[in-house]
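ingest -> validate -> predict -> emit
validate: passed (alphabet ok, no gaps, 532 aa)
predict: started
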Amino acid sequence: MCDCRGKVSGGLPLGEVSRFLEQRWPGLRVVLGDRLCEPGVLARLVSEQGVKPAVIGACPELRSKLISWAETEDSFAEVCSMSVVDVVGQVSLPGSRSELAERVKLLLWSRARRQSKFGGVPGESVKAQFSRPQGKMSRRELFEMLVPRYQVVPYIQRQRCAGAATCRICREVCPFGAIVIDGTAVSVDRLACRGCGACVAVCPYEAVVYPTFSLDQLESELEGLLVEMGTLEPRIVAVTCRGGMCSPGDAAGSIGREDPLNVLPLEVPCLSMVSCWLLLRAFDMGAQGVALVAASDGCQFDGASARWLREVELARRLLERWGIEPGRIEVLDWDGSSGSVKRFAQEIRGMGPTRLREYRPAAVVDEGPALAGLVLSLDTRLGASQVGSVPCGRMQAGYVIVDGTQCTACGLCASDCPTGALRWVAEGDSWSLLFDHALCVGCGQCVEVCPEGCLKLDNVIAPDKLGGPAEVVFGTGMVKCRECGAAVAPEAMVGRLRSKLAAAHGQTWQLEICGACKLKIRSGREAGVSGA
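emit:
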């Protein structure tokens, strides 16, 4: 922590803050320094104390200076392992000394929790870029323009990725065309990628990795912001855009300057990374309200605002299902954030605590889409005040309906399903198509590939269908070979082919002969002809 020439110690009880952090995490060290934004000071303190800082409480200028000091890719990766919290800015906020101390504790603890999930930045996730000249330049500015600056972007973890032959979800949501497919391999074009994180939010396999904004990091930071309820209530999380894509880059820093101290910022690279799961998880952990702070004209990327607004709408509908006010989630205009945040905070205070305060947060789901597991857990604990399914958009969830009069059991829908929500099972004399609603993300690939057009996808989430076993949505018997009794093909497929051949006056008996027996019959005929 930087004292910043006495500004921090003059407004905060640093000893109390240090004890809070060290008691919550035994073995954690809190080191005090001063003027850390000056060249060489931080490096000297690190060397003297023998520590590698994960979180630095300092002025906001330190973060940009750390990045500018990174002259190589390796040094930039080292900078990414350190997270800067604007402690100096907190001191000037309106509030008592004890309230400010509680806020700083939460900000530092949440960031420490977040950095505990940081796994490093591989080279394939680092993007080098050069600044472009703007008007007249000094010699120093010209020199600095020639020095590369680095940015972290997502990358594909190939061991987890299902491959382009099975899944194309990340490519469909990318607003920049940065997802590249080479054969079946999927990768991120670093030059085209702008680091919005939309691909991370939709990948059903968690194969898209954002080293500085992983879902584990965001969840851990939420947990830290909402720890030890009782002070700074009701807790409200303000999700802000760090990169200036949806709101100016200092939007997070503006939260709290004139707003209630119980409004706590959570930075994401772009609101495109906000998912229904993230919003509901905040409430599950104890948040009483969630605000998304955006510019009045929304995200600057085409279609991006529409995507995350669908996530907001789904979260609101689910809250309403559980008897929780949907108005606890709101999109606030950054241009008038001071007044809008205050108004929102007053509205949340008037609503009182949510019913979720009576329960412990849901356990982390390791398998399947995280949203389905969280919705099932919340539905089990809270019950439904509204019955039926909840409408949602594409890439959120879906429910598949099969027209049994048209299906031929070809199996293409199951082979193209990226999550395994659809699968064919052959048991004895039957052939069944199973559908697991908990695994469906509503991508629609099954509908696109169906040659008979017999599949319908309703973009809804039905909580009462999430907990049970996969249901049979179509079934048919198996045609057995007339010669040997082996399985030939599903009855639905044979029936369709028989009707087409009969209409063309073709022979249909071969449809009931397996491939091996067909070869035997053909070989026998050829042998007879040869003997004759």
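The longest helix spans residues 97-115.
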